[in-house]
Design goal:
The chain has 22 helices and eleven strands. The protein has about 500 residues and is of the alpha/beta class. The strands form two sheets. The protein has a seven-stranded mixed beta sheet, with helices on both faces. The protein has a four-stranded parallel beta sheet with strand order 5-4-3-6, with helices on both faces. It binds pyridoxal-5'-phosphate.
Amino acid sequence: MACSCHNLDVMEIQLGTDIIDKSVYGRAIVHLRDRKVRLPKFSELAAPNTIPSAIERQLAGIGPDEPNALNLFRVHWFNGTNRVGKVVVPEHIILPFEITGVRSPIIVALGTPFPMIGAHKVLAAYACLVPRLVRGEFDPIVQRAVWPSTGNYCRGGIAISRILGCRGVAVLPEGMSVERFRWLESWISNPGDIIRTPGTESNVREIYEECELLSQDPNNVIFNQFREFGNYLVHRQCTGAALSTIVDAYQCACPEARPAAFVATSGSSGTLGAGDALKENYGTKIVAVEALECPTLLYAGFGSHNIQGIGDKHIPFIHNVMNTDLVTGVSDESTDLLNVLFNDKVGLDYLESRRNVSPTILQRFGELGLSSLANIIGAIKISKHLGLGDQDLVVTVATDGASLYESEREKTIKETLSGALDTISAAEIFGEHLSGIRSDHVMELNSRDRERIFNLGYYTWVEQRGESVDRFQERRKMSFWNSLMEHLTVWDDMIEEFNGRTGMNGRVLKRD
Ligand SMILES: Cc1ncc(COP(=O)(O)O)c(C=O)c1O
């Protein structure tokens, strides 16, 4: 995997308002002016109450899954359950003791209300593309936006590309869920723009290799989520703000409560960026979750698993490892079986009648995809490990919902449950994979553990991808990550300038 891939690595973050290529910038302006696209600022996505009311009024007539430029203004956490209107506090579930068996409230922020893909990865895709667009680094007329991913990020990228009127290419392992491919087929007109790489969830390297080939054509621009600081920054700003709003709302009712831990599976590590915001605001501990079948952070291990969306066997460049406090491993056997228990009538009846779980909670279980279940299990493990009590909130996210995993459910029912879920199996799953959760495979990181994980990234980024040692090393310091935050203001200024040039600042937007 020696690096010949200039495109993946031309990813220098630069401050300032320099336009990289004036002719590319000019073409991008003409293109977006013709399409009447107004770009939201990152501050608007972090605080959607600042979105102009004229846009809000127009949005009311637009479906959340339409490829309409106005839907860029829904790429935030504050969409309501109907995904049309906005809410003051982001949609979330607070899991009760009956499910978790722990006293600490586990708060799960829901990603399903995000537009177009029903997952928060569309936010990361926007944050990777738009800074480059407004600096004249991406030509939406002639260049193709290439989205390497294990599924949701590339769907987000395809949605953003289509809205902006540029060609998008999804690169993902062939073994990902059929629902992801169905979605892609319905959004992409040229079948060649869906590139299937060998393997499944753990085969991130094969995705990189395909991107290396693609990058030899200068018209392909690779938006590498594992490397783009826009991904980290948008989660620190927007996901951080959303989670803080939920915490603050909880604290209004229970002033003694405090967010003790933020738990997130790591794919690109973008979502973990929200942990930096919570730690800054409340001193929250940051917990990274990975599949036990591929325990790279825990044990420098390898393997394959089915917790779709959490790529592995490497440390993403945008993972602020030195600010991570704990790591825990969750088995995909648990997530596969809970995916059945939480979405099958027999399972739901069991949870209601035998476990006294309220129907209002149960009806939201469809909003929990496989990695959301891993986050919940991770949160329970951490609560047990740290001995947390009823004032200690554990905050996590549901990146996507269960509808993306119906085929996986069918597979588990067929292969593991002999064709159907009955009440005895439901009770066994509950006993083993919920009430039986223990604080095993939890590691509290000391400085040596952090160094070990951090250094593991050297092999991917310096040896294989040609990153400079200095750039690699500067990521050890929190001051580096804090200094990155300045980019958000600069990018917002550039977005405003760009919108001014396309004539879209304060204008009525396109509705078709
Ligand atoms: C379903 C799902 N869960 C979790 C993740 C991991 O999120 P992140 O890439 O922000 O670490 C992803 C990433 O694509 C995902 O698609």
